[in-house]
Structures are given as structure tokens and as C-alpha cells.
Amino acid sequence: MKFEEKVTKLEEIIADLESGNTSLEDSIDKYTTAMKLVKECDDELKKVEEKIAKLVTEEGIKDFEVEE
Amino acid sequence: MDNYQTIGEFTRYLKLMFDTSTKMRSVYLKGEISNLKIHTTGHMYFSLKDETSKIGAIMFSTSAKKLGFTPEEGMKVLVHGRVSIYEATGNYQIYVDEMQEDGVGNLYLEFEKLKKKLKELGLFDESHKRPIPKYPKKIGVVTASTGAAIKDIISTIKRRYPIVEVYLFSSLVQGDGAKEDIVRNIKRANEMDLDVLIVGRGGGSIEDLWPFNEEVVAHAIYESKIPVISAVGHEVDFTIADFVADLRAPTPTGAAEMAVPNLSDVIDMISSYKIRLNEAITKSYKLKELYLDKIKNSYIIKNPLQLTLTKKQNIMILEDKLNTLIKQIYKLNEIKLSHIIEKLELISPLNVLKRGYSLTYKDDAIVKFKDISKDDNIKIKFDEGIINTKVVSKEKL
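Above: the input entities. Below: the C-alpha cells describing the complete assembly.
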């Protein structure tokens, strides 16, 4: 699932749970799913490695450094 | 001698010829400015020339004031005015009322024409514009590998959302071959799995930005499967690329800001989701708990016997009904039985006894004559009683 889809799903579940119209079993299921999504999103966002810009050339992809 | 005219007469005649000619009253010329002199009054005197010819020109201050640029020696211009003769010198010259820079003027007309055409073709349609993904993973950039644009884009992305991958498609962005190179790079970018594509360059003169006003570039942006953010020039100038792109950014930095969210904002958002989830589930729990309490305290749960009591009452009523019914059936059968008994009595052998007959028993069974022998103990039953006796003798009749 893409990050955007995860966020959308999270928003849906939160709205659902906040409405209070779900059964207890359902709430727990949804809560569990949502917390899993939260963790996945968190992990994606906190990947510490900083991406280096790449230059796409005919010969392939190489690191790109801005000339100062 | 009468055939001879004065110079003045002839010149006035020529001037009249010029001034009455509709062709001379509205003339469009293009050429290069030379011998430019700007008088303190604001009038401008110059020549317009090309490789072969030259014409004197004058622009009065009322018209000159309206110019959007400062004319310079050697500048190529497009002018409009009327052509007339200056009596004193006999020179014809153009009285310019409008002037614009050549090239730019042409480009401007070209721009408007192309804009109209592409608009009619539907290239600017809002319905074709795709949303820019909010949280991209891979961003493509079509611009020059040198210059401010790529530098601004990369530094902005690093500052806001360093977790995104940036792929640069180094392209010519001005001069010969630029439009073809931009098109080629947009197509190359489309071969990769990118979330969004920034196409642009830093600010420059209108000629510098021109590749982004080319029809082929417009089509390439329109046909890109990856959503395109245009980022050409500095704020004011709109290019054709801006109209076609899914999103127009005023500058390369602006494009980078539109392409990525702020990482800390996104982290905050996810944290807030976490809090809301926990609050919602706790609230949901509490609500269910309250509901459970309500059930626990309900009359029927607290007085479960009440539930059986009613059932018991129902059963008792049924039981009563059943008893009555059985009794009725019993009584009915009793009556039937007494009738049968009466009928049976009518044909009973015991009834015969009442008429004076008797029955003979041996060993408590009714016997016939042949069953009885001498000395047998027998019983003779009469209506009123029984005689026990012993057989003394037996005679067959």
C-alpha cells in the first residue's frame, strides 16, 4: 500500500471509531489494523538515510552533486 | 518658363501625394535603429535600416512616452506610422506612432497564437489535470544540471522532505535544441516509476524561456503519464508549459515546495492519528462498558426468576386445562362403559339364574355333565347362593 493510501485508510478508521458506531470486536480489529498502519508510516518517515539526488544518463543512473 | 515649378511647389505637390495616399497613412516597417538622437523635448530622431536601404524616422514625445522599452542603437524594431515629406529638406520620413522590439513582438504573437490553438485542442483542460501525490517517493526533475534551478530544487527538498528520491534528467533549457531535449527527457522520465515530474528552469529573458513555449514541449507535458509541475522563470511570466502542466509553480523552489510535504508536519500528523486512535478506542471501550453496566443492572438480569415465573404460570394454566380435558374424556368414557355393561348384562348367563336355572362348577370352572364323575366335589350356583356338594351318582339321560 502506498503511503497516501495508508493515510487515507487511517483517516477512515479514525472517523469510524470516533463515530462510535462500530461493535466492540470491530473496533478492536480496526484499532489493531490502524496501529499497524501508524507504525508502518512512522517507519517510512523515520528512515534516517538521506537520499542523494541521482542523475539519469543514457549510460545509467549515478549520484548527482550540485556544483557550487 | 511656365513649365518650370519652384522646388517648394514640387515638394508641396509630392507631400500632398504622400498625405492623400491611404497606403502612406498607415505603414508597417521593420528594421534596425541607427543614428538615434533623443531630443530634450522627448522627440526621437533616428533612421531605420536594413542591409540595402534606409529611411528617416521621427517619433514625437507623446508616442515615445508610451514605449515599454528604451530604444537603443542597433536594436531591431517593428514600427507603425505614416510616411510623409519634410518640406525643408525634401526628405521623406516615417512619423512613428507605435514601436516594439522585433523578435519579442513576433514571439508574443506566436505565443498568443499557440496558446489559443492549444486551448482549443483541450491541452489546458482542467479535467485532464492530475492531482499531485501528497507523499511522493520518487521525484523526477527535467532541467539543466548546472544553474540555480536544480540547486534550489534539491536544497528545498532536502530541507523539507529528505526521504524522497530525486532523479535529475539533465536537459538543455535554452537555445537551439532545447525543446527537443526537454521533450526527450520528459519521455525518458516517463520510462521510470516516478510519482511526480518537475519541468523547468530559472528565470531569464523571454527568449531564454522560449523552449517552454514550444508546441512540442506542451504536447510532451500533456502526454506525460507522470503528473507534471511546471517551474519556469520568476513569478510573473506564464509560459505555455505552465498552462499545460498539472500544477504551475512560480519558481523552481516553489515547485519543490509543492512537490513534497514538510516531513515534520507528516510525522506530527501520524502522531496525532495515533493519539486519536487511542482516544477513540478508549472511548469506545468505556461506552461498551457503560452499556454492559446498564445491562447488568437491568431488572431482568437482576431478577432472573421473574423470567421463569411467568413461564411457570403459563405451564400451570396449561396443566389445569389438560386436567379438565382428561376428566371430561374420562367421564364420557365412563358413561359409554355403563351402557356397554347394561347391554352385556342383558345377555349374561348369570341373568339366566334369575329365571331359576343353576350353574355347576368343578374346581371353580363351569363344567358340563360329561366332566363330572362320582364322588367329585362340585359347586352349584343359584341366583341366591352356592351349594357345595358331593356327587353320589351319575345317570345319563
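Note for the figure: The longest helix of chain A spans residues 24-45.
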